[in-house]
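Subject: sequence -> structure tokens, single chain

Hey, anyone have a minute? Need the predicted structure for the following. Not urgent.
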Amino acid sequence: MAMQEGGKAINSVIDSLKGNPFMLAMVIMNLALLAFLFYIAQQIGAQRQREIAQIYAQFKETQDLLLKCRGQINDMRNGVQPKEG
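Reply:
Had a minute. Here:
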């Protein structure tokens, strides 16, 4: 019963769109816009993930360099000569 009512509603919508091609064009354009916005949102999300990965990689590299410097400073304070090379 619900399927029949749904089918009747869809048929009436299609019939009204046949009589007004401008509305049909608007529906098609709205669907195309939704698809385009979904695609853009996906691309922005992927770009954001790449940027976050780059930021973490740069942070880790900086942290590693600072840890090496800290070790050298501690060695100098304890009287250990720095290694050459």
